[in-house]
């Protein structure tokens, strides 16, 4: 910590990570920063789990089962570190392989809690049984091909005991490998292109204007503009030229028809780019004066997507591309339909032809849920971006490049 303001220097983590020799000669001296990523953070255990004889909790069908793996903290609390997909109507499920990073686990001897649940749409999932095993013990189960009986906690008076079930947990396969990290790709010169599309539909703005009556200063500035500023301030460091394509949709540009994709800067043709985050803000401010709020809202009047299946079809196709879609929901609407696109319930999106998305590429955050909270909109919105990026790279066998040092 530098206490003398005359001897301070401000930088960002992206600049430090990008520098192989980070020396900054100054009149007052020189500061050298050394940073490295430990190898343990790249070691990943891949496990394939299955269960047998699970209890049926549903009346008209069989249980919809998924696993949650958690780790116990020093404080005594447990935190989930991984979960499987939901397998419907199956009392003997075998899930797709899941990955556990050693940096999350800590070491192979730390106990892990493996809990099996029956999925309920209301979020109150039924516990079907649990087991406590370290990663080393899970490896032994994989080798022996034996099952581990699940148990459920039960109370007799004030004493907690365990009821052993006939349901069993099996580890079909357990392997270790070194997985490249998000930072490996950034150090190899990989860049991200930041693109913005803003909703100009009349219904969306009408809802904001209704909320203005309660709090005038929160109108556009603390909603759409704030979201762009916060997210853009982070992502701009990974875009070398700071030239950002920006569009609007659901509005009527001057002397033109209603458009669901128009250049925010007012230009025609294939010239949607603006310079820097301030360029987006300025173009948006000008567009508010030059674009009439219109409709229909094909991507969500009051949060309900009227072209939902077409949107899902497009997202399924885009799941094969190096693309992530980050959506900020503005206003007090019911965003239930929008949350379906996020696929955080473990179920993949399926197109109208039945094709499943190759990966989850959507992260949706209602701005009202994070505004003024402990977690910023940036943290919530970008939480899944590294894993989405890595999934694409691994699916396509693309390793990071070794960046040559600059002279």
UniProtKB/TrEMBL annotation:
Q: Name one Pfam family in it.
A: C2
One biological process term in Gene Ontology: cellular response to calcium ion
Using the record's annotation, list all stretches that form the C2 domain: 27-151
Q: Which CDD domains match?
A: C2B_Copine
Q: Which GO terms describe its molecular function?
A: calcium-dependent phospholipid binding
Q: InterPro entries, from UniProt?
A: C2_dom, C2_domain_sf, C2B_Copine, Copine, Copine_C, vWFA_dom_sf
List cellular component terms (GO).
Answer: plasma membrane
Q: Which family does it belong to?
A: Belongs to the copine family.
Matches recorded under PANTHER family: C2 DOMAIN-CONTAINING PROTEIN (PTHR10857:SF106), COPINE (PTHR10857)
Name by which UniProt lists this protein = C2 domain-containing protein
The record lists the organism as Ambrosia artemisiifolia
């Amino acid at each position: 910590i530098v206490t003398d303001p005359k001897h301070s220097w401000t930088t960002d983590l992206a600049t430090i990570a990008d520098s192989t020799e980070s020396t900054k000669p100054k009149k007052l001296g020189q500061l050298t920063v050394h940073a490295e990523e430990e190898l343990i953070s790249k070691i990943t255990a891949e496990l394939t789990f299955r269960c047998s004889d699970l209890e049926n909790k549903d009346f008209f069908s069989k249980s919809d089962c998924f696993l949650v793996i958690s780790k116990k903290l020093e404080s005594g609390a447990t935190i989930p570190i991984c979960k499987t997909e939901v397998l419907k109507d199956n009392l003997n499920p075998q899930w797709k392989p899941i990955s556990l990073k050693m940096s999350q686990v800590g070491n192979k001897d730390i106990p892990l809690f493996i809990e099996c649940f029956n999925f309920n749409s209301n979020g109150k999932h039924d516990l079907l049984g649990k087991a406590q095993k370290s990663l080393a013990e899970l490896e032994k189960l994989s080798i022996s091909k034996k099952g581990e009986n699940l148990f459920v906690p039960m109370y007799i008076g004030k004493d907690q005991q365990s009821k052993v079930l006939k349901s069993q947990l099996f580890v079909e396969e357990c392997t270790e490998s070194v997985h490249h990290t998000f930072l490996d790709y950034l150090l190899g010169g990989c860049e991200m292109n930041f693109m913005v599309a803003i909703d100009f539909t009349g219904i969306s703005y009408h809802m904001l204007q209704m909320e203005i009556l309660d709090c005038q200063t929160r109108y556009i500035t603390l909603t759409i503009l704030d979201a762009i500023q916060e997210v853009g301030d982070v992502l701009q460091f990974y875009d070398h030229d700071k030239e950002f394509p920006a569009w609007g949709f659901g509005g009527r540009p001057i002397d033109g028809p209603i458009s669901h994709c128009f250049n925010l800067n007012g230009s025609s043709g294939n010239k949607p780019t603006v310079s820097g985050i301030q360029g987006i803000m300025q173009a948006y401010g000008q567009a508010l004066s030059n674009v009439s709020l219109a409709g229909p809202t094909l991507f969500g009047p009051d949060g309900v997507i009227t072209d939902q299946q077409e949107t899902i079809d497009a997202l399924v196709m885009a799941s094969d591309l190096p693309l992530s879609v980050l959506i900020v929901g503005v206003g007090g609407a019911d965003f239930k339909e929008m949350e379906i696109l996020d696929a955080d319930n473990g179920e993949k999106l399926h197109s109208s032809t039945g094709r499943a998305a190759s990966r989850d590429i959507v992260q949706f955050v209602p701005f009202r849920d994070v505004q003024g909270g402990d977690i910023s909109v940036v943290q919530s919105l970008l939480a899944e971006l590294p894993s989405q990026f890595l999934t694409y790279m691994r699916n396509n066998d693309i390793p990071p490049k070794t960046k040559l040092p600059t002279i």
